[in-house]
Specification:
By secondary structure, this protein is mostly helical. It is built from 10 helices and no strands. It folds into 2 domains: about 60 residues, Alpha Horseshoe (Leucine-rich Repeat Variant); about 100 residues, Leucine-rich Repeat Variant, CATH 1.25.10. Helix content is about 65%, strand content about 0%. The chain is elongated and about 45 Å long.
Length: about 160
């Protein structure tokens, strides 16, 4: 099964095909499947979700061309989809500048603390490109969520370190 067939499998209505494709992508991860893997992180089948997340853990930064689709997935219903979208955008670092607004929105308003934390982390990885997030990160740095406050503080330092 080549990567195109695996992606088709992930997008299938048949849970057995999605499960097989996700399992194959754990064994042979491929960046071309990044967006499809993120989408199935919200699958009703727990095994599919676990395999998709395992495959994503093995991948490095996604293709920059996927940034827009990943930014859109920050508005998905499932928190794991939003978490992985933020994670992968963070792996793109400053190349994900087009998604900064979506990450700021996630930082400011996501109901899941893990997603807000990951958005702060991702913005911090962008350095100067995340300067528009300064106010949101400053508010998050005062959060009662210690991890969010720490990540937002680190992001602010990264933004500050990059200024001229």
């Amino acid at each position: 099964m080549d990567v195109a067939e695996r992606i088709d499998g992930l997008n299938s209505a048949d849970s057995a095909r999605r499960r097989e494709a996700a399992e194959q992508l754990v064994l042979e991860p491929d960046l071309a499947a990044t967006v499809a893997l993120v989408r199935v992180c919200g699958d009703a089948d727990e095994q599919i979700r676990e395999w998709a997340m395992s495959a994503l853990e093995q991948l490095g930064p996604p293709d920059v061309a996927d940034a827009s689709a990943l930014a859109e997935l920050l508005a998905a219903d499932h928190a794991d989809v939003r978490y992985w979208s933020a994670t992968l955008l963070g792996r793109l670092e400053e190349k994900a500048v087009s998604a900064a607004g979506s990450l700021i929105h996630a930082l400011d308003s996501d109901e899941a603390n893990a997603v807000r934390q990951r958005a702060a982390w991702a913005l911090g990885r962008m350095g100067r490109a995340a300067v528009a997030a300064r106010d949101s990160l400053t508010r998050a740095a005062s959060s009662g969520d210690a991890r969010l406050a720490r990540l937002a503080g680190e992001a602010l330092k990264n933004i500050g370190d990059c200024q001229s």
